[in-house]
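Researcher: Please translate sequence to C-alpha cells.
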Amino acid sequence: MPIDFYSEFDSPKTVEAIADALRAGGHQVHCVEANDDLPKWFLTHEVDVVFNIAEGLHGAHRESQVPAILESLGIPFTGSGSLTLALALDKAKTKQVLTYEGVPTPCWQLLATSTTPLDSRLRFPLIVKPNGEGSAKGIWRESVVQDAPALRQQVARIHEQYRQEALVEEFIDGTEVTVGILGGQAPEVLPILEIDFSSCQHSGEFFYSWRMKEYQGNAAMGLNPTLHCPARISAEMTARIQEVALRAHHALGCRDLSRTDIRLSADGVPFVLEVNPLPGLDPTESNFPVMTNAAGVSYDALINRLVDLALMRSRLRWASHHLSDIPVQTGDHKPSARTQEPMGGSLGVGQQEDGS
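Model: Translation complete:
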C-alpha cells in the first residue's frame, strides 16, 4: 500500500469543525461513515440534506459514489453531482474537456505502460502523475523529470504502486496560484491564493507534491511555502486568472464550490493544472477556507452557506416538477444535516484518515 493511501481522507478534526459549524447554524447533525453500509443507513433514516465530504472507498470514480447514492434516493446534498466528481478525478478526461472548452492546460499524454512512446511534441521538463488520484497522491520531488530515463522510471513507479495509467504533462515553471469559486447560479470568484515556494530550498520541492501537502508548514523539512491572499499579481492578471478558473468551474459542471490549481507561464498564460470540486475544508490547514476568509466569509458562514445552496437547489427542483405553490417552512423548523468523514473514523458520510 502506498504511503499516501489515506491522504485524501479528512481528519476527525475537520469533520468535527464542520459539524460544529452546522450546529451553530441551528441544524441537527448526524455524522455518518461513508462505508459499504451507507445505502442501508439512508433507507432507514430520514434527513433533509447531506453535507458531502466523502472521498469514496474504492474505484476509479470513488468520489462520485456517495453523490450517486443520494441522487438515486432523491436526497439533497452539498457540492457537485456524481458526473462532475467522476470526471474531475480523471485527470486526462478533465484535460480533454478543458481543451475542448478552450481553457488553457499544459500539453499532456496518457501513458498506458512504461514503454509507451512519448509524443515528440512534448518538451522537458515534464511532470508525471497518477491519472486517477487526488490530494497530490503519487506526486514527489522526483516526479518532475528532465530526461527520458527519469521519465520511464517515474511512469513505471506509477504503474507499480498505483495500478493505473500515468499522466505526463509539461511542467510549467512559474508562479503557482489556486482559485476558489463559491456560490450557485452566479458563483463568486474568491481572492486568488498565491503559493510561494521560494522558502522551500531545503526540500528542493517547488510545487505541490504529496510531502508538501502532507507536511505544509514544516520549516525543518523545507516544506513551508508562504501563502499570499490576495496574490501578488496585477489587477489585469487577477482578472484573467479568475476568468479562466470560472470557465473551468463551468466546463466541468461544478456547483456550490470548487478550487482550481493554476500555474502562470513565463509569458503570463494561466495554465489550469487540476479542478477540485471537493476541496479540503479544514478550517486551519486547507486552502479554500483561506480564500473565503480573505473574502470576509467566516468558516461557520461558509459551511452553512453550502447547506443553504443545496436546500435552495432542492426547492427549485421540486418547484419545477409541481404546479402548486412551494410550501414555506416556518422559522421553527430546523433541517437536519449530515457531515461525512473518512474510512475507519467514528463519524460519517465521507472518509476520514486513520491517524497515520
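Researcher: Any highlights?
Model: Residues 107-170 form a domain with the Dna Ligase; domain 1 fold (CATH 3.30.1490.20).
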